[in-house]
Amino acid sequence: MNLWTANPLTSVGPIKLGATREAVREAAGPEFEEFRKSPSSDNTTDDFGSFHVYYDENDTCVAVEVFPEIEVVVDGEVVFPTTQKRPRPQSRRLNVTMTA
What we know:
- This protein has one helix and ten strands; from the N terminus they run E-E-E-H-E-E-E-E-E-E-E.
- By secondary structure, the protein is mainly β.
- The protein is globular.
């Protein structure tokens, strides 16, 4: 499991909110798939396997969606997954949406 620190309104792991798509891809690595989340999406989303990154119409990072392979810590406390005592269902996700 990967451990990421989230700094509200600033970053989630290596991903800085407000960064360009190019900067996100440099920080996250070369393995990704770009896709349209829904037919009504304004822009495409980058799928890095264990997380998705969302962009606005200017290709600026506005949100990071984290999957169970990543443990997220804020101020020293695990905030995702929300419990270590129960099995983690594969469908659980944490949407961290922060706008600049």
